[in-house]
Amino acid sequence: MRIIRSVSEMQQTALALRAAGKRLGCVPTMGFLHAGHLSLVALARERSDVVTLTLFINPTQFGPQEDLAKYPRDFERDAGLCRDAGVDILFAPVAAEMYAAGASSYVTEEKLSTGLCGAARPGHFRGVCTVVAKLFNLCLPHVAVFGAKDAQQLRVIRRMTRDLNFPVAIVAGPTLREADGLAMSSRNTYLNADERRQALVLKRALDEAAHLFDAGERAAAPLKSAMEKIITSAPAAKMDYIAIVDDETLAPVERLERPALIALAVFIGQTRLIDNVVLRSSPVTPKVRP
After folding, report:
1. Which residues sit opposite 213 in a β-bridge?
2. Which among 4, 88, 92 is positioned nearest to 54, based on CA atoms?
3. What is the largest CA-CA distance in the chain?
């Protein structure tokens, strides 16, 4: 595995690989890797000849009161996991390389990024879009893989990629969960034992909404109410939001007639966790007359 720190070296390497006819895959991450990240590497491997995993804790997507300084870091551990997973290039630039002094150019998506986490974290998706656009320009991938757990991020990146004509196929990797159902996240390390137990209310709430939907409930309000009841049963939980939105436009819906995304963000103690589920009605099989 090759470790690259320089942005110019990364771009020149990608150009050379493309000139040699290689298909390039990219898995953007902020490090402190877990099995969910490694599953994205496997998806990239299936679709490319050379897999680059990017490890960069992007300062422009953190707000002034957020956890940039304490975000978990362990480069040697991450590098070992990358080697074991078959990553070909680990691109780990420093912020001064990624953002020149006095940098004043940013990428903004102005529709899908405004609600959900975008409303709670002003400027977050401007930082996400900017760094992903930069990574696309440096790694020059044919395919990039992102996790479905960050549902809004995935849809924003897809829209940016389309709107700015990046020649990159965006692939979604399914959410990986711990044995008890908690979605894997680098931020789970912030939870103490009691908070870790209480964090299971996120998955329980989503499961209850899916159960009600499968039983025929299509109104959003009862689904929200049932989820709120479960989440507030945990003493350490404080809701940021529960949203039921159209899966494509992310516009709020009152009834789930089309595929809908149920997304939630909940503070467990001081740790903000997100999770989601997409609900869609099973297609009706036409009855064939005898």
Report:
1. none
2. 92
3. 74
Query: What is the full DSSP assignment across 145-173?
Result: EEETTSHHHHHHHHHHHHHTT---EEEEE
Q: CB neighbours of 257 closer than 8 A, spacing ≥ 6?
A: 218
Concerning whether 211 is annotated as a catalytic residue, the answer is no
Q: What is the DSSP letter of 255?
A: B
Domain extents for the chain?
Answer: 2-173, 186-277
Catalytic one of 37, 124, 142, 211: 37
Q: Give the strand order in the sheet containing 50-55.
A: 2-4, 89-91, 50-55, 24-29, 143-147, 169-173
- φ, ψ at 214 (rounded to 5°): -65, -30
Distances (CA, A) of 107 to 53, 63, 163: 22, 17, 11
pLDDT in tens, 69-120: 889 999 999 999 999 999 999 999 999 999 999 999 999 999 999 999 999 8
Contact 24, 90 (CB under 8 A): no
> In this structure, which amino acid lies at residue 269?
G
| CATH number of the 2-173 domain | 3.40.50.620
Secondary element (H or E) of residue 76: helix 75-85
Residue 111 to residue 10: CA distance in whole angstroms: 32
Radius of gyration of the chain (CA): 20
- Structure confidence by residue, pLDDT tens digits, 18-70: 999 999 999 999 999 999 999 999 999 999 999 999 999 999 999 887 878 88
Topology (CATH level 3) of domain 186-277? Pantoate--beta-alanine Ligase; Chain: A,domain 2 (3.30.1300)
Q: Which residues pair with 50 in a beta bridge?
A: 24
